[in-house]
Each structure stands twice: as structure tokens, then as C-alpha cells.
Design a protein that fits this description.
The complex is a heterotrimer. Chain A is an alpha/beta fold. Chain A has a domain of about 220 residues: Rossmann fold. Helices cover about 30% and strands about 25% of the residues of chain A. Chain A is globular, with a radius of gyration of 21 Å. Chain A starts with a strand and ends in a 19-residue tail after the last strand. In chain B, α3 packs parallel to α5 and α5 runs parallel beside α6. Chain C has 11 helices and no strands. Chain C is globular and about 75 Å long. The chains are: A alpha/beta, B alpha/beta, C mainly alpha. Chains A and B meet through α8 and α9 of A and α6 and α9 of B.
């Protein structure tokens, strides 16, 4: 039984001018200690909403967490007081975002920004101590010439350097779970590779667990142990990187991997999506009759690989196939 | 005919940096620093490069939104910067552009019918009814129903907005269309559709495309030739297939290997380059890539590499590619 | 046939949808809604004031000395002034003067300020420098002082006061718009229009202006209130409307002499100014909320 990090029956709704919209509907998501769990989703799938809900920084209104639990080390984060959450943010769970320029305050040096975070969580530290820690962190993220970098302002650094500073800030207080929300989205490809390698090294060095969120499935594969595919707020397939790479089951996963060529789509039937049919029905090339009658639930493909699709039943599986109960 | 439909000859565009009071020029941003390209009619040229490589400035210059510091752009035999008014007006109709950002590339306060009809209103003297019916036809070509006419851009998805942008680009029946990252901001379903549409339109109207993209799958699927740009220069150029299979320039190699794809095994297979892209104000001496090149030699710091022809139409600017008669590298 | 149907059917449906959305937003913000109702009532009052005023001739200067400084009663709802004129009729008519004056001032201010701001932002360079330095000159004075100085220079009268207000107010709109224009100029759809060959003036007025008009609308609606207040101040100082005009500020200044004996003389014009200016402020505030979140789509 996983007690490290678990999301259970999480439902998040948004208040819009057109009524209430369900944005996240996740039955179960497990993250084991020390593992990197990747979440792949396109824009609008709910990635950022999910990430922000873990740290409870969702703007509410318009977002409302209707039900569910987010359990971290035995505690349900959603039931904690704000004060307790503040202790967890930065100290135990940290987050990095996709736009380093707007995450960093342009009027403070990066050194000051790292030190501010350190001092907030370590009230007994002196300024000198904080400065030493900050230097250590800058070196940890492999930025050269740490002493000078400390005194630079964000706009004097390049995009890749800024993102490293963000990572330094996130890890400066010993957080053991890092949520990375599209950390390389706005970076050039060659810089992106550097950041990914850095995150990989930090995972090995510090033993942190990572929830890595991105919209590029190949990117997620190379950094994650296990991967979940997010579509319209639901996890529709989850498994190890190997599972999903070798045998992507859900048609959406296959499409993300480029295994469905554009000419395959000849969808003629237009059906309105509601809760009682599969959320992917209107885009699915492999749909069958039952797909428009019931919404599928996560079903086992093998011990580590689960998928939200009716077609699993048609496969030849042995009697051990069971479904995750709610 | 083999004559280049669009020829770019040693194009340079430098932007001045002012400082002091009264303002005087202190430095130059060498956004485009000597680009020569020949594009044949009906070809798709893919332009690949990271931020700061100069592709946006190159595109702006081809569209006449910027005047070159030196060099020429010859469109169907005519230098586009030495045209009279009538020819200028005709030029606008020859070459059009589809932008990357499907949100801001359409005026959020305008109705679709006005957005797509604008080129027609500016250049032709048609009645409202005629414009409306032409707009309907254009939207039909890109698969947008005519109910869209009185809607606003925000009522459409990214993919649909991109298709509307394509309809607008085709309104003047251009021969050249510049596609600036046409699929990077849209979802995977729409990406497929857009690419399919672009291919179809290319065949139907015998269009010539200049495709800018950092998504190699898109470039692979659409481009005939590709040009890799770095810090204002084209450092490799050739038939798409050849360049993908055998990237000759170390930067091209690093660029391709930095992007994870279906065949990437693990994180150790991707290449991260040291350092950052230098500023275009302080272009490194010698080969501009030498500061980050994993295989740079002494000569790379000192001299600019010549363009080495590797095969028919495949060339790259790198000293390591120089070979003597027996095919051995001269370095 | 089909073209006609496109012109009449679809636009009507769309207009309805847009209208519904605005009404929904207005309903959500009760304060703004109330302010709007008040303003509409004021407009109606302004229009029909000579008709509903119980003593219409008192508005224009007919005097009635035997009824001077009477307390509010059933005949004289707001009491009378030192000339025996019915204050109620005069305050009602003052609505017309104030609203009309501020409307003219704001509209003229916009007509001067907005095009200059558009040009400054779009063309940049030398034109931008010249226009903005002139704007800076004007803006370095507090608007009331500037208006006072101009009105004093031109000579005291209602028309000159309005002129002074126009001159003092237009630079604010220029500055407001210019900032917006500079950022919108960089957006892709402007580049697209350039690539199409759209002439500059069309880009400025048809592309850029609709996208930056919201803050200006908000500012203008708040200014309608602010200008009424400033006009009243000018008249109060003797630089605006002159006797026997039924202008609120003028009434206030005349009432000072009789303040201790005739409280009604100061209070009612004061309340009128207060309600009007407050309503415009609330409207402007509410408009800002309505116009801005429209771009935030969840």
C-alpha cells in the first residue's frame, strides 16, 4: 500500500460564465518515494490545475475542489489548515513553473531571492548562514561562478540560467517532493536538454521524488519511471515508461506517440460528450459500440499498466485482470 | 524551370543599439549576418533554429517589414526593395504569412468575416456581397463552416483559428506562404489536420512554402529542403532527408540529438550543449559556434569556416568537413 | 436573398447573445447597476427638467423677491434662494447644464487626445517625442489649477470654463492610449495587417484602437463625474457659470453668504453634485471590472 503520495477521487470544478465545468476528475494517482512520475497532457487537459491543487495554490474562485483527497506521508493535504500548508510548501513539497522570468522578482538579485526563501523556513539562520546555503544551492544547480551569480539580477541571466535558479530556490529548504510544471516549455531545445539532465542528476544526488508535468510525451518518458496520460482532466492510461513506449494502449497515447497517422482519422459520427460515455469518444478511431454506452474505468493491462478503455476487455487476458475499485 | 523563385543574396540586417545623450549608435545587433538561399517554385524550405538565430528577422525582411542593411531579396526576378508603387502592391499579394500564435494573430475584436476579408478590402474594389462570398469560399477551403462568419476568434479552438489564419493568407492568392511555427501552439489532433490541409493546399495551388518550426517531425513531414540557422547565418543546408540522416555540422547534430523522440532510449542519449547562445551584439570570432562546439579546434577560434559542399545541394559551414582528394579530413 | 439573411438573421442572434452576456455581468455587480440606473434617471431629468420644474421661469432668471430664502415647503420643495427663485427647479435644470457640459468636455477631450495618442504610439520616434513632451507640459499642472488658469485667462463664462476643461483634460487620454498602443503594436495581428498591406491609418483606427479603448472608456466615464466636479469648482470660484445660470457650483458659492440662515441653499445643490459624481465614479469602476475580465477566459 502506498503511503507516500496518493491522489484519491479528486474532483475540481471551475465556475465559468457558462456554468460549472469539471476540470479534474482523477480516481487514483500514486507516487512512490524516490520515483519520478510523469504526467503528459496537452494544454487545457488540466496539468497546471492539478499541480497547483497539490500545493493548494489554486485561485478559488473560480476553481473549487469539490471532493477527494491528496495524501502525503499519511496526511490529507486538502484538510490541513493554511498555516500547516505554509510549512509544507517549500520545506517538503516544492514547485517549479514554466516561465522563469515571471517567477523571479526582477527587482531583487537572485541571491536575495534564494536567501529570502531560506530565511523564511529557517528563522534561526543568520544572514551569513543563509548566504552560505544560497551559494551551495547555486553550485548544486551547476551554475558557474557562484559568487558573482549571487549578485546578478534575473534580467542579467539567460533563460536556462534563470530556470536553474528557480530549481535552486525550490530545493533550498530540503523539499523531498518536487512538482515540475512544464519546466522547459519556454526554453530552447539545447538548453532544455541541459535542464533535464540537471533534474536527473539532482534526483540521484538528493533522492527527491518528482512529479514531472509536460506536454511532450517523449520528453516525459526519458525523465520518468512511470507515466500517466492526462486527457480532459482524467488519467486515461498509466504505466512504466517502458509499458507505454512499447505497448501504448489508449488511442490518445498512440496519437501522442505519432503512431496514428493523420490519414487514419475518418470520424463521421458527431456525438456530444457527457459523463456517461467515454470522454475520448468523439476523437477515437478505435471506438466500439460499448464506448458510447458506458464510461470506462481504469482496467489492468498488466501488473504495472492500466488504461481507461473498453477495448482491454477484448484482449486475451488471463483471469488476473481486475479493475481498480473506487 | 530551375530558376529560383525566391533568391536571398547575402542578406544582412543589423539593428542599431543607441545609448548616451544625445543618442548615438553604440553597437549593432547582427540579427541576420549574411544569408544566401535559393528557393525553387513549389518547394518547401524548412528553416530550423533556436531563439536568436535570426529567422524572425529573415522572415520580416522577406515580407518587406524590414529594410535590409545590405544584400538583396529577389522575388521572381525582381529585387523587392526596388519596386515602384504598383509593383509593391502586387508583391503583397505574392507572399503571405501564417503566424505562430493563433490567438493574437487574429484581431480579437474583429469578426471572422472581417479578418479574412481584410486583404480583399485593402487591395480590391469589391462590393460587400462579393467579399462575403469570397470569404465563405476561403473558409470552405480550410474546412471552416460559414457559421463562423459572424463569430469572434475567441470562440474557436487553436486549431480552428490557425485554419482561419491560413484562409486569410490565401485570400490574395499568393504564390509564397511563410509558415511561422504553424503547429506549435495547437493540440495534437489539430496539428495533424493542419499539416494535412497545408499539404493539400500546396498541391492545389502550387504554393511555395517557407516553413519555420522547431518541431522536427513537422519539418520532416513537410520540407523538401532544410536550412539550419545559428546566430544569423545558415550553417547547414540541404535536402531534408539527407540532412536528417547525416547532419554534417556539429550544431545540427547537437540540435537533432537534443530533442527526444520515439527512438531516444534514455536521458543519456540526448545532448546538452555547454553555455548559452551568445548575444547577437558580440558574435564570437571565427566560427560563431566555436564557443559551444564539442569538437572545436584551434582554427575555429580564428577564422570563419567556408561553406563546404558535401554533395549535390547539401552544404555546411564547418572546418571539420574539409577533405583532401582521398576523402580524409584536413583537421 | 442569402446575403440578406446573413445580414439580418445571424447578426441579430449574435447581438442578443452579446447583450445577454453584458446584462449578466451587470446584474452581478449590483452597485454598478444602481449607478447606471441613477445616471439614466439624471439624463431623463436633464432632458425634461424645464417641463417638470414647478417654476420653469425661475430657472432662467425671473426673480421673485417676496419669497426669498424660504424654507423647503410643499410649494418650494427645496426652498428658495436669495432672489426668491425655486431651488428645486434650478437644481433640476442644473442637471442639464452639468451633464451637457461634461459630455462636451469629455467628448472633445477624447477627439483631441485619442488621435494624438494613437499617432504617438504608432509612429514612435520624433512624432512620439513631440506629442508626449507637450502632454508632459500639460500634465505637470494639477488639472484644476490648469483649468482655473485658462478660464481666468479667457474670461469667466460657462463656455470658457468648458473650453478650459477640454484643454486641461485631453492630455490624460493621450498618455493613456499611447501606452496601450505601444504594446499592442507588437502583436501578431498588427504584423499580419502590415504584411497584407493595410494602410497605417486603418491599422491605427480599425485594428489597434478597438483593442485599447477599454481603459479609455473607463477613464472617460469617471471623468464625466470628475469634470462636473471641476466645473462646479470653477463656477464656485467665479470662473465658470455666471449669474443667473442655474449651475450647481454657482449656487454653492452664492449660498455661502446665507449658509447659517438657509441651510437648504447649500445642501441641495451639494447633494446633487455628490450623487452625480458618485454615480459616474461607480459606473467607471464597474465598467473597468466588466470590460477587463472579458479577456480572462477560463
Amino acid at each position: 500500500m502506498n503511503n507516500y503520495f496518493k491522489i484519491k477521487d479528486l474532483k475540481i470544478n471551475f465556475e465559468t460564465s457558462e456554468g460549472i465545468k469539471n476540470v479534474i476528475n482523477i480516481n487514483e494517482l500514486n507516487l512512490h518515494k524516490g520515483e519520478t512520475f510523469g504526467i503528459v497532457g496537452e494544454s487545457g487537459a488540466g496539468k497546471s490545475v492539478l499541480a497547483m491543487s497539490i500545493l493548494r495554490i489554486l485561485p478559488s474562485p473560480p476553481a473549487f475542489i469539490e471532493s477527494g483527497e491528496i495524501i502525503f506521508k499519511g496526511q490529507n493535504l486538502l484538510s490541513l489548515e493554511e498555516k500547516e500548508m505554509q510549512r509544507i510548501r517549500g520545506r517538503e513539497i516544492s514547485m517549479i513553473f514554466q516561465d522563469p522570468m515571471s517567477t523571479l522578482n526582477p527587482v531583487f538579485t537572485v541571491g536575495q531571492q534564494i536567501m529570502n526563501v531560506i530565511l523564511r523556513h529557517n528563522k534561526h539562520f543568520s544572514k551569513k548562514d543563509a548566504k552560505k546555503e544560497a551559494l551551495k544551492m547555486i553550485e548544486l544547480v551547476k551554475l558557474s561562478d557562484a559568487k558573482n551569480t549571487l549578485n546578478k539580477y534575473p534580467n542579467e541571466l539567460s533563460g536556462g540560467q534563470r530556470q536553474r535558479i528557480i530549481i535552486a530556490i525550490a530545493l533550498s529548504c530540503g523539499a523531498e517532493l518536487l512538482i515540475a510544471d512544464e519546466p522547459t516549455r519556454n526554453l530552447d531545445v539545447t538548453i532544455q536538454a541541459g535542464i533535464l539532465k540537471l533534474i536527473n542528476e539532482l534526483i540521484k544526488e538528493l533522492g527527491i521524488s518528482v512529479l514531472f508535468i509536460a506536454n511532450n510525451i517523449n520528453l516525459v518518458f526519458i525523465v520518468s519511471n512511470r507515466v500517466g496520460i492526462l486527457y480532459k482532466g482524467k488519467i486515461i492510461e498509466v504505466g512504466t515508461s517502458q509499458d507505454l513506449k512499447k505497448e501504448p494502449f489508449h488511442p490518445y497515447t498512440q496519437r501522442l506517440l505519432g503512431k496514428i497517422s493523420p490519414t487514419d482519422s475518418n470520424l463521421k459520427e458527431e456525438i456530444k460528450i457527457n459523463d456517461s460515455i467515454c470522454p475520448y469518444f468523439d476523437k477515437c478511431e478505435k471506438r466500439i459500440e460499448i464506448c458510447k454506452k458506458f464510461s470506462p474505468i481504469l482496467t489492468k493491462v498488466n501488473n504495472s499498466h492500466w488504461v481507461n478503455c473498453h477495448r482491454v476487455i477484448n484482449r486475451e487476458v488471463d483471469d488476473e485482470s481486475s479493475s481498480i475499485s473506487h | 524551370m530551375n530558376q529560383a523563385a525566391l533568391a536571398i543574396k547575402n542578406l544582412k540586417k543589423y539593428f542599431p543599439v543607441y545609448s548616451g545623450f544625445p543618442s548615438r549608435v553604440r553597437d549593432w545587433i547582427k540579427a541576420v549576418d549574411g544569408v544566401t538561399l535559393n528557393i525553387k517554385k513549389g518547394e518547401t524550405l524548412g528553416v530550423v533554429g533556436e531563439s536568436g538565430c535570426g529567422k524572425s528577422t529573415l522572415v520580416n525582411t522577406i515580407l518587406r517589414l524590414e529594410k535590409p542593411t545590405s544584400g538583396e531579396v529577389i522575388l521572381e526576378g525582381k529585387d523587392i526593395f526596388h519596386l515602384n508603387k504598383r509593383e509593391m502592391s502586387r508583391l503583397r499579394k505574392e507572399i503571405q504569412i501564417v503566424f505562430q500564435d493563433p490567438f493574437w494573430s487574429l484581431n480579437p475584436r474583429w469578426l471572422i468575416k472581417d479578418i479574412v476579408g481584410e486583404p480583399l478590402r485593402v487591395h480590391f474594389n469589391l462590393s460587400l456581397g462579393e467579399i462575403l462570398s469570397k470569404v465563405e469560399k476561403l473558409l470552405g477551403m480550410v474546412g471552416i463552416p460559414k457559421t463562423a462568419l459572424y463569430k469572434y476568434p475567441h470562440e474557436f479552438s487553436g486549431g480552428e483559428r490557425q485554419r482561419i489564419a491560413i484562409a486569410r493568407a490565401l485570400a490574395l492568392e499568393p504564390n509564397f506562404v511563410i509558415l511561422d511555427e504553424p503547429t506549435s501552439s495547437i493540440d495534437v489532433f489539430s496539428q495533424d489536420q493542419i499539416l494535412k490541409l497545408l499539404k493539400k493546399l500546396k498541391e492545389e495551388f502550387n504554393l511555395t512554402y517557407i516553413l519555420i518550426s522547431h518541431d522536427l517531425n513537422v519539418v520532416k513531414s513537410m520540407a523538401d529542403k532544410i536550412a539550419i540557422m545559428y546566430l544569423g547565418k545558415v550553417i547547414e543546408y540541404g535536402p531534408a532527408k539527407k540532412v536528417f540522416e547525416n547532419p554534417a555540422h556539429p550544431y545540427t547534430n547537437a540540435l537533432f540529438k537534443a530533442i527526444p523522440d520515439a527512438n531516444t532510449k534514455d536521458i543519456n542519449s540526448i545532448i546538452a550543449l555547454e553555455g548559452e547562445v551568445p548575444s547577437a551584439i558580440n558574435i564570437p570570432s571565427g566560427c560563431r559556434f566555436h564557443t559551444r562546439c564539442p569538437v572545436a579546434r584551434g582554427i575555429c577560434h580564428k577564422e570563419e569556416p567556408p561553406v563546404i559542399k558535401l554533395s549535390e545541394e547539401h552544404e555546411a559551414a564547418c572546418f571539420l568537413l574539409r577533405k583532401n582528394e582521398s576523402g580524409e579530413s584536413l583537421l | 436573398m442569402s446575403i440578406k439573411s446573413i445580414f439580418f438573421n445571424i447578426p441579430a442572434k449574435r447581438k442578443l447573445k452579446v447583450l445577454k452576456e453584458y446584462i449578466y455581468l451587470l446584474k452581478k455587480n449590483k452597485l454598478t447597476f444602481t449607478a447606471l440606473i441613477i445616471i439614466l434617471s439624471l439624463v431623463v431629468i436633464a432632458i425634461i427638467s424645464p417641463i417638470i420644474a414647478p417654476f420653469p421661469y425661475h430657472i432662467y432668471g425671473e426673480i421673485n423677491p417676496q419669497d426669498k430664502l424660504l424654507q423647503p415647503s410643499r410649494v418650494y420643495l427645496f426652498g428658495t434662494d436669495e432672489m426668491g427663485r425655486d431651488l428645486f427647479s434650478r437644481v433640476l435644470y442644473g442637471t442639464r447644464i452639468s451633464l451637457l457640459a461634461s459630455l462636451i468636455a469629455v467628448v472633445m477631450g477624447l477627439l483631441i487626445g485619442v488621435p494624438l495618442g494613437l499617432m504617438a504610439g504608432y509612429y514612435s520616434g520624433f512624432i512620439d517625442e513631440i506629442i508626449m513632451r507637450i502632454v508632459d507640459m500639460f500634465l505637470s499642472f494639477p488639472p484644476l489649477l490648469l483649468a482655473m488658469a485658462i478660464a481666468a485667462f479667457l474670461g469667466p463664462s460657462l463656455q470658457n470654463a468648458i473650453l478650459a476643461l477640454i484643454i486641461a483634460w485631453w492630455p490624460w487620454y493621450t498618455r493613456l492610449i499611447r501606452g496601450q498602443v505601444v504594446s499592442i503594436k507588437e502583436k501578431e495581428f498588427v504584423r499580419a495587417a502590415n504584411a497584407i498591406g493595410t494602410p497605417s491609418w486603418q491599422i491605427m483606427y480599425k485594428h489597434i484602437l478597438p483593442n485599447c479603448i477599454s481603459p479609455v472608456i473607463v477613464q472617460a466615464s469617471m471623468d464625466l463625474g470628475g469634470i462636473i466636479l471641476t466645473l462646479a469648482a470653477l463656477s464656485f470660484l467665479g470662473l465658470g457659470a455666471q449669474s443667473p445660470t442655474s449651475e450647481w457650483g454657482l449656487m454653492l458659492t452664492t449660498s455661502r453668504k446665507y449658509f447659517l440662515n438657509a441651510w437648504w441653499y447649500s445642501i441641495f445643490p451639494g447633494i446633487a453634485i455628490f450623487i452625480t459624481v458618485l454615480s459616474f465614479n461607480l459606473l467607471g469602476d464597474g465598467l473597468r471590472e466588466i470590460l477587463d475580465p472579458k479577456t480572462k477566459k477560463y
